[in-house]
Amino acid sequence: MAIQDVLFLPGFMCDERLFTPQALALRAAGLGCRTVDYGDSASIERMAREAMRGVSGRVALVGLSMGAIVALEIWRQFPGQVSHMALLNGTARADTTGPSRKLQLRQVVEGGLADVLRQELAPKYFAAGHNSEHLTELIAAMGQRLGPETFIRQSVALMTRPSQLELLPSISCPVLVIAGDEDRVCPLSRQEEIAAAIPTSELCVLSPCGHISTLEQPAQVNASLLRLLSTSASPSTNVRTAAFNT
Predict the structure, then answer these.
(1) For the stretch 155-187, what's the b/e string if a residue is b when 16 or more beta carbons lie within 10 angstroms of its beta carbon?
(2) What is the pLDDT of residues 123-149, one digit of tens each?
(3) How far apart (Å, rounded) are the C-alpha atoms in residues 240 and 129?
(4) Which of 12, 42, 130, 168 could be 153's S-S partner, Cβ–Cβ 3.0 to 4.6 Å?
(5) What would the CATH number be for the domain defined by 5-93+163-245?
(6) What's the predicted TM-score (pTM) here?
(7) How would you classify residue 23: left for phi > 0, otherwise alpha for psi between -120 and 50, otherwise beta?
């Protein structure tokens, strides 16, 4: 492998369980990896700084959804320390869901975190027809563990984030962009936009797959990550597209 350390950057209200299949696969391949805890961060900029706390060398970044946004911010702040990037089910655009987020915040403040997790977030996450009952329970368990205060902080971070579109052409490390063909949160068009703007990127479209690719299609995600991490960290100029169906 070309690198030895991987940082997993979890999505909104998720913890290390979001990346369990990937951690097992990467450790089996001899890679060191850990999942970032954003702590009490209430901005994407601070999440990026928190993620890189104590990191002295170069690392590979694997971020899903909000974690992909944090990965791009890490590149902005610490470009010399990023060897590879995997951007899963993400977006580089500023937030457009302010009204719905504010409604969810009100519900959470009033004690409705469990309902928001199970009834509003999880139903949007998975591909149609996917047997997602156990995944819904996992989403709920991760969110309940993090709690309402974290929900509020992370919601504020997402609502106040700037667009990252202008940053994308500056990225020069190898980048893997993973999309789900049925992602309703960050649709395929957002992943295509990211991949088209980064000269060193590869776009992988997973099918059938919604927003939580690490858990919906773990084998395909693992294979794609291992392929990315086996490449040289030197820049490439080719943009490739791959599609995986299961």
Answers:
(1) bebbeebeebeebbeebbbbbbbbbbbbbebbb
(2) 999 998 776 789 999 999 999 999 999
(3) 29
(4) 42
(5) 3.40.50.1820
(6) 0.93
(7) alpha
